[in-house]
Design goal:
Elements (H helix, E strand, L loop, with lengths): L2 H10 L4 H17 L7 E5 L5 H4 L6 E6 L2 H10 L4 E4 L15 E5 L8 H11 L5 E7 L7 H5 L8 H6 L6 E9 L4 H14 L15 H12 L2 H10 L9 E8 L11 H7 L26 H7 L4
Parallel strand pairs: 1-2, 1-4, 2-3, 4-5
Antiparallel strand pairs: 5-7, 6-7
Length: about 300
């Protein structure tokens, strides 16, 4: 993400229907995993501008970490009562990585070229019994200028996401699509934007705050999915079969974990693609590798300008 997207998140995430509904869904899942008001530690990896973590600060110990100095500055300014650090997890977390009861990875894995390495490295640092709650964008047929503006490497299907932890000592408590009820409308918007080669909202994204009645209605529709997601996790039931995003809950089990690289066959498919190179079926045409944006954390921390 670039400064423009961080600024946009900071401006709208406390009101926009997508952010508000997603936080309510996540809060319900979190409270079912880790009981509130029991001094439990939640670490938000890739916390961005801090809105998700600040929502939990009334009931949990909270720590946010992000590789973007811009995101951390905004988070610290907006939520001074919550601790945020600039750096790469798990290294920047120190002993806290082994103390966390829950790690959040909300729309993070799609931003890194090697999602296998990122998750396995984090799980290797986690204690047995700790949980990971993660979300990612789903369905490559939805790829559009919105993904390019955010620097995504991929959108996932359930099989591709589950491959990231397959074979590791974890228990999958939930794997489901969500943002399902609005899928058809969002699919129409993304198809139109792909044809136009232009996003529908601000800062190169599809995010724009709608008028109050529409914002309320969309929030209610989206957050209405949380009951089924909770049942799916608690009872081992099937979740949603399609959606704009995927959500998973993993429990760390005893056992050694060696961080591992993404298989070459998957890495070849995961390279960023330009929207013009995507077929109508959502498959990427052959394209050259992209490069990930470099973090400003190291230089900022060296200068002492980020706490």
């Amino acid at each position: 993400m670039q400064q423009a997207q961080f600024d946009l998140h900071a401006q709208i995430e406390e009101q926009h229907w997508w952010f508000v509904a997603r936080r309510r869904i996540l809060r319900s899942l979190i409270e079912a995993i880790v009981p509130p008001h029991q001094n439990r530690l939640v670490i938000d990896v890739g916390c961005g501008t801090g809105g998700n973590l600040a929502e939990l600060a009334d009931a949990y110990q909270c720590l946010g970490v992000d590789t973007s100095a811009d995101g951390i500055r905004l988070a610290q300014a907006r939520f001074p009562g919550v601790r945020f650090v600039c750096g790469k997890a798990p290294e920047a977390l120190g002993e806290a990585a082994g103390q966390a009861d829950l790690f959040l990875l909300t729309d993070v894995l799609e931003h890194v070229p090697d999602d296998f390495w990122m998750l396995s490295e984090l799980l290797a640092a986690a204690k047995p019994g700790a949980h990971v709650l993660l979300t990612v964008p789903a369905d490559m047929t939805l790829w559009s200028p919105h993904d390019e503006a955010f620097g995504h490497y991929r959108r996932y299907d359930a099989e591709r996401l589950a491959a990231v932890w397959q074979g590791l000592p974890v228990r999958q408590r939930l794997l489901s699509y969500f943002n399902t009820r609005l899928y058809s409308a969002i699919r129409w918007v993304r198809d139109r934007n792909r044809r136009r080669g232009q996003a529908a909202g601000n800062a190169g994204t599809d995010f724009e705050l709608p008028n109050a009645p529409v914002n309320w209605l969309l929030r209610r529709i989206f957050e209405g999915e949380r009951a089924r997601l909770l049942r799916s996790m608690r009872r081992g039931m099937r979740g949603y079969g399609r959606g704009v995003s995927l959500v998973a809950v993993l429990e760390r089990l005893p056992g050694e974990i060696e961080p591992r690289r993404v298989p070459a066959t998957l890495a070849a498919m995961d390279r960023p693609v330009h929207v013009a190179d995507l077929t109508s079926e959502g498959h990427a045409a052959e394209t050259s590798p992209g490069t990930a944006g470099e973090s400003a954390c190291e230089s900022e921390l060296a200068s002492g300008s980020v706490r």
